[in-house]
Amino acid sequence: MEYLENRTFDEINIGDSASLNRTLTEKDIQVFAIMSGDINPAHVDAEYAQSDMFKKIIAHGMWGGALISTVLGTELPGPGTIYIGQTLRFKKPVAIGDTLKVTVAALEKKPEKKRIIFSCECRNQKDEVVLEGQAEVIAPDKKIRRPKVVMPEISLRRIKSLFTPYIEKAKQHGALHAGVIYPVHEKILQAVQDAEQEGLIKPVLIGPKERIVQVAQSAQVDIRKYEIVDCENSHSAIQKAVQLARNDEVGLLIRGAAVREDLLHALRKHDKGILTDRVLSYAAVLDVPTYAKALILTDTHINFDPGLDVKRGITQNAIDFARALGIAEPRVAILAGVDNISQNMRSTVDAAALCKMAERGQIKGAIVDGPLTFDNVVSVEVAKAKGIASPVIGEADILVVPNVETGAILSKQLEYLAESRNAGLLLGGRVPVLMSHIKDIHLSTVSCALAILMTEYELSFRG
Question: Which CATH code fits 277-428?
Answer without folding.
Answer: 3.40.718.10
